[in-house]
Fold these 2 entries.
Entry 1:
Amino acid sequence: MLVIHNSLTQRKEEFRPLEAGKVSIYVCGLTVYDYVHLGHARMLVAFDVIVRYLRARGFEVNYIRNITDVDDKILNRATENEEWYGDVTERFIAAMHEDERALAILPPDQEPRATEHIDEIVAMIEVLMDKDLAYRADNGDVYFSVMQYPDYGKLSKKKLDELLDGARVEVGELKRDPRDFALWKASPDDGVGWDSPWGYGRPGWHIECSAMSTCALGDNFDIHGGGSDLMFPHHENEIAQSEAATEKPFANMWMHNGPLRVDDEKMSKSLGNFFTVREVLQNYDAEVVRHLLIASHYRSPINYSEQSLKQSIKALERFYQCLKDLSLSDAKWLTNSRFEKAFFAAMDDDFNTPKAFGVLYDMVSEINRQKAANPDLANQLGRLMVKLGGILGLLQSSPSDFLQRGGSAELDVAKVEDLIAQRERARQDRDWHRADEIRAQLAAMKVVVEDAVGGSSWRIER
RNA sequence: GAGACCGUGGCAGAGAGGAAAUGCUGCAGCCUGCAAAGCUGUGAUGCGUCGGUUCGAAUCCGACCGGUCUCUCCA
């Protein structure tokens, strides 16, 4: 039985899809005005694992993740750069796709863009206007009237009257109520915008996701996900708009991934601990970063630090050291393995990746024990472990590649191989002094030699 | 101020009424020419503190202490 934590009820619930065997899931994607940062990566990887697992479990998944490609931040960036906003978004969408590929994040089934759904957005606002749940302000902005949706706050557990205290009242307020939020924002005639019944303008952020999710998945669908910081107001507003417009339940379950922190502090540009994915990947292997992002449960905060990266390096080295001397290609597929069952049981429990890792480490121990006792079984278990690792998007490299890649750029592999050959000869001559000398020489190059019965192998000291 | 969440061995991190997973680290042993890797053993009589419920609590309830997040466009 698959159990998922539902942010709406704040508890784990049995997952019952609307249609047996199928899952419809919408996740709030990025606003593309800059490079993907580690916080984004956390969200992308979290839902990538969730979708991979749902598929591995046999569900037919329809995974939608949008792109917000028109927004104040984008327009500001375009103005700063003195370029057309569409060039800004195209560039950062391309960069985002690059970073996703590096981190083994599979593309969603659809990646709708706000600018390609203006008609649906306008149509949804029209429905709200017709129902008198929204109103046009004098300047052409259109606002949603929060008071008319009594369930407002059901996701973030906020009370309507308490929200009034904290609501920011701006000078020259156009809203009838400070809690109301924009569905449509008027644009200057020479600015970016589209014609609408309320005048020239562009969509508000919240309505984009309501319109795109409904367009792709229907009024009512299984799962809506995103970062926990989007719960209020973004997701709250989505629920209000959608349920008010359709008079049907919106997403049945809400899933929120936890935040990423850096050295125990919130990641921010002002603190100087802000990392983009591409910066991090210059210094660390993408698989290591991915491991770090799923070594904690998706709802827990993750702390990104030098130390946590080191732990992920060690963890992956353990896996790949184990796989290194197996031959998997001709191994039979193990069926009904207790490890596979335990892995699925862990993931069935709200995608408990740390528990699932526990199972994989148990497999490593068992494989290492069986290498001598029952090599066939070791190979079979190894093959299964690679398959299970694949559900997490890990362990798909060849062991020697993982263990040997990521050294300094000037590492001369031919020289390493040559030194190892020389050392082999020295060892055959029982010239331990010479062998140790060569080993020290390799160590200076950040290369670790490991002697085994079949010959010596090497890996990078990370 | 309001709301939500969290506090588990040296570190990381599961467990959510009935033997405290797992990884790293430490120590001991085996293996090895020596290492590395691997294997075996060892490590919280205890799960922030104090009470309560229960035959039984890390798990439920209450208070307190400490920490984090959210509060109108941040994943």
Entry 2:
Amino acid sequence: MAAGATHRPVRTRCADCPIRHRAVCSHCESQDFEELERIKTYRTYAPGETIAWAGEHMPLVGSVVDGVAMLSSTLPDGRRQMVGLLLPSDFVGRPGRATLSFDVVAATKITLCMFNKSEFERMVGRSPHIEHRLLEMTLDELDAAREWMLLLGRKTAREKIASLFVIMARRDAELHRNVPQDGLRFPLHITREAMADYLGLTIETVSRQISALRRQGLIELGDNRMVHVPDFAKLIDQSGDDADGGVLI
Amino acid sequence: MAAGATHRPVRTRCADCPIRHRAVCSHCESQDFEELERIKTYRTYAPGETIAWAGEHMPLVGSVVDGVAMLSSTLPDGRRQMVGLLLPSDFVGRPGRATLSFDVVAATKITLCMFNKSEFERMVGRSPHIEHRLLEMTLDELDAAREWMLLLGRKTAREKIASLFVIMARRDAELHRNVPQDGLRFPLHITREAMADYLGLTIETVSRQISALRRQGLIELGDNRMVHVPDFAKLIDQSGDDADGGVLI
DNA sequence: ATATGCGTTTGATCTCGATCAAGGAAGATC
DNA sequence: GATCTTCCTTGATCGAGATCAAACGCATAT
């Protein structure tokens, strides 16, 4: 970086790095980025493959580069609940913890960008900014988990499906910054089973509700699992949430 | 502290401090404790009183000294879901965030120990250990929220009630370190409505399931809202979870 | 004593989503 | 091209929990 670079926070984005959206000084922290770059490795998993089991020792942390992974939890009799959806740029792993609390499973073909956890932690120990960023990200995840508790505990099947589509649409939009024209389009990578596990429903109910939304013209399913939402506000109406602020974020 | 105090981490507990269970060096960090002591204030709320509204600017952080508070979320049409139960020693507030995401409501008469948020944050900025501890606590809350997602999405009414009792019993036991003799005893402060909001049920279903557990001798309700669990393992059996390790933690 | 109010319990009935069952669509594999 | 296999859809039926309704226990107020 040129001499005389100002000591001012800048917001950078790096989908391949566990610490994304860094709002720290790029000048004094650039060496962190470089070190992260040096130690990173990529790994790809097939759909359905378990990336890590709950309770397992997990020597890596990282982030999703491409594809979708699920955090899920299973009761002794096999009932399963997804407790987190990991989309591109999401953090994977538990800094400062030896083991995972939940299974991590690839929902689609997925590529992760991984770092050795102890090396990452040593870096964290040297740089309080990274720990601060980790805290921010964890608070965001906690908020998302709690929003999901409202969905699981109090929403109807119809509202659950609509909410899922709203969330997927928003996540896709913030990733691609595409300007909506004749409505929104986004890919629905995950299977009916994954949706059911996420929403606390059965696949039959998921299928029926999607059919119903389709019959009412709220969504259209195209090729390659693309979903087209002609009127996003109408979909939000079905989600049970406040339509605060209208479209997208 | 005597001269020659060793530079060794000790685990201390301070129910009145937001940073509880500190596993840091008591020698070099004692000034943090002292500063926390200096700026703390107490405040008591009546049952049902709203401590803070979602979206509100919250200039304080702190922790529960005595009583129970609820974090809850409400849909536009009034359906409510509790997304967190704040028991004595739990942290309240969002360090580094301007506003709250959820309502904070006193479930019982409750006493909080509060700190000015910006003063607290200034302290956090000076001491990376505190931020580290905050991250740990937030990760714990995230795990708890995700456990609860499994309950909300996949457990039956019976299992939900049993799980709640198991959690309350464990929380009480870890607070009082009472040795179980003829089973466990703990106070059930919250109303049927609060339980229903927590479990994603109606008060009628909560009442019926509690009556059923009582008829089967799994729990007994005594005076002053005390619950007696003659055989904790049998209660865990009803919760749907693995009976891993048996009694208590 | 009676009234008022709140939390709780219990009963009767209904409904939404689960369960059981069958068939269809689109790739893979041979 | 035929046959799996996997995922998805749709129909018929069932049942757990919601809803509607009434009454009880217990406190405080009148």
